[in-house]
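To whoever is covering the structure queue this week,

Two jobs came back overnight. Logging them here so there's a record in the thread.

Job A:
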Amino acid sequence: MVKIRKFKLSDIESIKPLQPEGWSDITFFFRFYHSHEFCYPVVALKDGKTVGVANATLNEKTGWLAHIIVADEFRNMGIGYQLTQYLIDFLSKHDCCTLLLIATKMGEGLYRKFGFETVSEYLFFREKMLKTVAEYENIRPYKKSDLPAILSIDQHISAEKRSHMLSCFLSNSWVYDSGSAIEGFFLPDFEEGMIIAENDKAGLELLAFKHSLKKAKTVLPVENKTGTEFLFAHGFENYSMSPRMVLGKNINWKPQNIFSRAGGFYG
């Protein structure tokens, strides 16, 4: 029998062996999930041993499933299925009409069993730094007065209400200010460095700015043709793809305006 319960900080050491190869440190994420009320992290226990983890994030009517991980030696025993069902039930009880996730190749088949459908694909580009002398005259540090514009842009493009999450990463962020309006933003500390912009000019400048600061990877929805063409033109290598999947009511998001996703846990 497998028991699923809410994650505790005392579980940190026991989840370290679950760390998948090539993933960012999962203990960082579960510390974050534990400290924010809009997240609901859980662990799966078998005979007192931690054999799986998972998290759900609530954005009012939408919710994200993420970090559904099962220990290698306990795979193919239905534990991933139980964790997924547990989170689906949790989000449904909280009136989420739309459940979202970004699947690994290993997990995609599992999610289809629940009725998740692919609505997009994300392209993964290897880490690279751009050497540029551009001055980026329209890019400046975030000010508190920019918050309403950032939240408006994000809701328009993501079709979700995510102020609670974005507010956690604004202290070191940047905006594209045309002089008459804020047209995009860049959150360097939000995992892979989220960039969302109202137009291609703002998006491309923020993307170039991101890669002028340090060597970094970028992941884009396939619908963002302008962004992918820019990366290919500058020698970036596309090495993988992952599906974005939805269960329930689809949302009217605008993937062509996402110039860098935050991460696999949030799109």
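Job B:
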Amino acid sequence: MIRNLLFHLYPKRNSFWRWHVEQLLKFQDVWTGKRLVCVVLDDHTVSSGEVSAALEALDCVTFFRRNNADLGEVAHFIRLLTFLESRDPNEATFYAHGKGVSRDSMLDGIRMWSRSMYELNLTFPELIDRRLETAAAVGAFRVQIPHSGAKWCFAGTFFWLKHSELFSRKWRDIEPSRWGVEGYPGRHLRFEESSGLTTHTMTDRELPEWLYGRNSPGVTETHLKQWMEKLREESKCTRA
């Protein structure tokens, strides 16, 4: 499977944006195809030069754009997808963003949630390849709740999309709101066409409270360990 990366980064000063870059570098061998990073800048971010230096080892194509405070990642998402468009059944793109960098609260919970999404989506690439043989999208925290014009989503906006399924549809359609990318897979694909990497069931009321760690422990090391062990066992079967 050809595996591409598409990443959105808002390198706000005094945030943990570099931590996200560290995660990309940690898993950089996963991406065997194109690596595209969209960096959005404004008066609150570090310089383009500082970001370029941090991303140098990733060997990616970096697009610098002006941050759109109203639309966020939605402002550039479809345009960047055009650089990846293909209907190759053996090609897929992983999308993620620098979650939490614009927040000033709940940072420990958001970082743990983000870490879980990186590890669950990227530790076992052969497992992802196998899942994508029958699924059009794969990701963690798959939930059936109405969101951004969709009936389901991968909560947190980290997911894999299979090119032959996505680009054979009206893929340029996206809800023009700040959360449009989170709802994007569910806007084009049926829930039954997707595959989830976690099994925790959440309602629309519980979802943000539980994932963010707001008034609750949030995603814990115990949760992640249990999920990773299940994927590790599945991965062993995939290699057998």
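Note for Job B: The first helix runs from residue 17 to 26.

Please reply-all if you pick these up so we don't duplicate work.
Q.
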